[in-house]
Amino acid sequence: MRLSPKARMNRMFTNGKCLDVALDHGVCNEPGFLIGLENMAGVVNSLIEARPDAIQVAYGQADLLQSRPEKDKPALVMRIDMGNPYNAQRHRVMWSMLQNAEEPIIGALEMDAACVVVNLFMLPDEPDLFRQCVENISRVRAACHKYGMPLMIEPLVMLPNDVRGGYQVDGDAEKIVTLVRLASEMGADIIKADPTDDAEDFHRVVEAARVPVLVRGGGKEDLRVVLQKSAALMAQGAHGMVYGRNIYQHANPKAIVAALMAIIHQGASGEAAWEVYQNG
Questions:
Q1: Which end of the chain is more exposed for a tag (fewer CB within 10 A), N or C?
Q2: What b-and-e string marks burial along 65-79, b requiring 16 or more CB atoms within 10 Å of the CB?
Q3: What per-residue confidence (pLDDT) applies to 3?
Q4: What is the pTM of this model?
Q5: pLDDT score of 59
C-alpha cells in the first residue's frame, strides 16, 4: 500500500495554512543572499523560538533544526536541488541538478523531513535548463511516491537576464498560471509560486494548482509593503508563505514571523500585522 504524504504534510500545515521560513540560500552561490545567514546556528535557534510552521534548509544545515529536542519545533522542509540561475551574470551553460541524483530523497528521509522542494525554472531561451528541471522532478516524484514524502515544486518564471540581471521574477499572471499548472500535472503535493504582479489575479494560480499554494517572497522589500501584499494574496486563496530574505535580513525576524503568522493563521490585515510587528 502506498504511504500517504498527508502524515508528513500535517507537520507543516495547521488548518491548511503554513509559514515556511526559507534559509536554503547557501545553495545559490550568490553572496548577497548570505547576508544575515553568516551564523546559521544562531539564525536557526532564533527562528525556532519564533515558532513558524516550518524552516526550509538544505541537507548540510538540517541538523541545526533536527538535533534540537523540542517536540514542537518547526517542521523541516528540505531543499534537494541546486542550480546557477541566481547570479547577475548569465552563465555560458545554465544548469539545475539534484544534490543526490542516485537517491534524491535519502537525505530528507534520514533527517525526517516533512517535505522536499525542487525548482522548475522557466528562463527565456534556456530549454535545456527547463528539461533538466523536468527530469529532476520526474526522478524525485517517483521516490516521493515510494516513501510517502510530500513534494513541493517551485515553478519560477524569470525575466530575460538583460532586463534585470540575476533571478528576477516575471510576474505575468498568464505565464505563472501556465507553469503552476505544469507543476500540478507533474504531481506536486504543494506548490511554491511567485506572486502575480496584480495580487487580484492570484486566485487563478490557486485554481490551477489544485494543491496548497505557498507564496514565494523573493528579494527583501519594505516590510509594510510585504505585509500588505501578503494579506492581499491570502485573500486570494493562498495557503501561506515561503519567505526568506524578508525575514532573516531584517533586524527583528521574530517580530516579522509573528506578523506573518497573524496574517496566515488569524486572517489579520496588513495594517493589523504591522501593529503586531511593531509590538514584537
A1: N
A2: bbeeeeeebbbbbbb
A3: 67
A4: 0.96
A5: 98
CB burial readout 46-58, b (16+ within 10 A) else e: ebbebebbbbbbb
Total domain count, the chain: 1
* Residue 121 within a domain: yes
Residue 91 domain-assigned (yes or no): yes
Query: Dihedral angle at the C-alpha atoms of 229, 202, 220, 158, nearest 10 degrees?
Result: -160
CATH number of domain containing 158: 3.20.20.70
Of the segments 86-95, 121-130, 161-170, 178-187, which one has the largest average pLDDT value? 178-187
Where in the sequence is the domain holding 200, given as residue range(s)?
6-278
| Separation CA 3–CA 135 (nearest Å) | 23
| 78 pLDDT tier (thresholds 50, 70, 90) | very high
Is there a domain that residue 101 lies in? yes
CB 237 within 8 A of CB 202: yes
- Residue 210 in grid coordinates: 489544485
Q: For the residues of 177-207, what is the DSSP string, one character each?
A: HHHHHHHHHTT-SEEEEPPPSSGGGHHHHHH
18 domain residue, yes or no: yes
